[in-house]
Specification:
By secondary structure, this protein is an alpha+beta fold. The chain contains three helices and seven strands; from the N terminus they run H-E-E-E-H-H-E-E-E-E. The chain has helices at 5-11, 48-58, 63-83, and strands spanning 15-19, 25-31, 36-42, 101-108, 118-125, 133-138, 141-146.
Length: 166
């Protein structure tokens, strides 16, 4: 089946694509959970179709997975606040943490399997302005939530480390 480039471009969720100075594709994508567009960087070894899959996957996360990632974000928030001597925050429900978080950049890695989307999201959070936060979701599992460290989304994601709140 032959598909033209025009047909492919019209089906992607990433807009305003261009090649940056590092020969990576970059563009913008809408994230429903946050109701905003953010920057997307696509690894040189990846492609638009895989990037589209990853964004679509994020926009269709289950309530259970969203709850899990929000609870991990709250653990990160409150441990950080406690460590710096500030009062911890109380949340009525896990998603109440979302207004304190702003996604900054969605990274699309070189896929190990083009049929399995990976989420590698850099976020700005109100409690840790210097290091922010990173979310990695792989295989339907929250793998990493913690300070942004550029964690390899296909590695062990520091799963046993104190700074991973997943």
């Amino acid at each position: 089946m032959n598909i033209s480039l025009k047909e492919v471009v019209s089906t992607v969720v990433i807009k305003n694509l261009k090649t940056n100075e590092y020969s990576e594709l970059e563009g913008e994508a809408y994230l429903e959970l946050f109701d905003l567009n953010i920057k997307v960087y696509i690894d040189q070894e990846s492609d638009i179709e895989y990037a589209d899959l990853c964004i679509t996957y994020f926009n269709s996360l289950s309530e259970g997975l969203i709850d899990e990632i929000c609870k991990a974000s709250i653990r990160y928030c409150n441990e950080f606040l406690d460590d710096i001597g500030e009062d911890i925050k109380e949340f009525s429900k896990s998603t109440d943490v979302l207004p304190l978080i702003t996604p900054n950049t969605f990274y699309i890695p070189h896929p190990k399997n083009k049929n399995e989307p990976v989420i590698d999201l850099e976020l700005i959070c109100s409690w840790e302005e210097e290091h922010g936060m990173e979310w990695i979701i792989r295989d339907g599992k929250v793998m990493y939530v913690g300070p942004y460290n550029g964690v390899n989304p296909y590695g062990d994601c520091d799963i046993e480390e104190d700074w991973n709140y997943a």
